[in-house]
Amino acid sequence: MSGYFQAFNDSGNYLIDGVYKSFVLSRKLTVTTSVNVQSKYRYVDISVSSGEIIAIRSGVPVFLIFRSSTVIRLGTNGTAARAFTVYIFKNNPTPEDSGAGLEVYNAAGECVYNSVQLPLNIVGIKTGLSSFTFDTSRIYAAVIISSSGTLTSAYTAVMGPNIIFHLYIGVTSGVNYVSGGIQTSNVEYYSSQSNETYSSGQSYPSYSYSGKECKIAIIDVTGY
Prior knowledge:
This protein is mainly β. It contains no helices and 18 strands. A 4-stranded antiparallel beta sheet has the order 4-5-8-7, with no helix packed on it.
């Protein structure tokens, strides 16, 4: 391969690559989960373009409902509308008449890095349900790489002889910020119910669920 520019950090990771376009902040939005779903949870739809990366900074757990090529749907538990911040990054650095700074171009003459534009600064990739902390003087957001949900059941014999109350509960993983980092946790976001008959003496399971899988990228957004 012909020569090109590269820069690395102390860990040997790329900071700038002369071939691949870097991700930079495209827009920062404050959004609110305004759509109420059966008084169980609320969601907001955010318009996105293909290839954009969405980082979330919220004081309450936010969970991913789905993503398509044009929209991402994020939810919060409960009936209250919740506001939070999203940072949207896209790999489209553009030249600027900034007067000072560094711009890097590929062989086709396309800008692949511009030091004036705010970069996607990943400080860690984490898996599981926990609090992941770094520097309390910095501000962090989370990109949900993957999360899993399940529908579990709770039975309680409260409806009289041979009748049970059956509760279906949806559980997924959510992200919220803590001092100096990001926390992941289980979120109960949906429930439905029904009355069912059962035979005299029949046993029924108790309500339980295990921790859901969650993988995130933690982004430093200090000053963004």
